[in-house]
Specification:
Elements (H helix, E strand, L loop, with lengths): L1 E6 L2 E4 L4 E9 L6 E7 L6 E7 L5 E3 L7 E6 L4 E6 L8 E8 L8 E2 L3 E6 L1
Parallel strand pairs: 2-11
Antiparallel strand pairs: 1-3, 3-8, 4-5, 4-9, 5-6, 7-8, 9-10, 9-11
Length: 119
């Protein structure tokens, strides 16, 4: 089992920045990749980006590309989502997730952290 815990959410003005953290514990050696997702009120959960656990390759969706950056600290078993130039439409609950294979589904989820961007 893998346990995930997000932190770092909060209220920020448009144009501001936040950094979310996702600390993994348990069988972290089994992790292949970590992903970030978000769910805005009344909307479906959407994929934001991912990072390979070992190689560190990253990918972000077009909506956040150039503003959000995903990184990791393997020594701390922690993944980060650096969010810059935040917009009101970025307001959502942000979740991190982990999967054990490149083509598998995300099996482990954190509890989520609220990000609110005021205009």
């Amino acid at each position: 089992q893998v346990q995930l815990a997000e932190s770092g959410g909060g209220l920020v003005q448009a144009g501001g920045s936040l950094r979310l953290s996702c600390a993994a514990s348990g069988r972290t050696f089994s992790i292949n990749a970590m992903g970030w997702f978000r769910q805005a009120p009344g909307k479906d959960r959407e994929f934001v980006g991912r990072i390979d656990w070992s190689g560190g390759n990253t990918y972000c969706v077009d909506a956040v590309k150039g503003r959000f950056t995903i990184s990791r600290d393997n020594a701390k078993s922690t993944v980060y989502l650096q969010m810059n130039k935040l917009k009101p439409e970025d307001t959502a609950v942000y979740y991190c997730a982990a999967k054990r294979s490149d083509y598998g589904r995300y099996e482990y989820w954190g509890q989520g952290t609220q990000v609110t961007v005021s205009s």
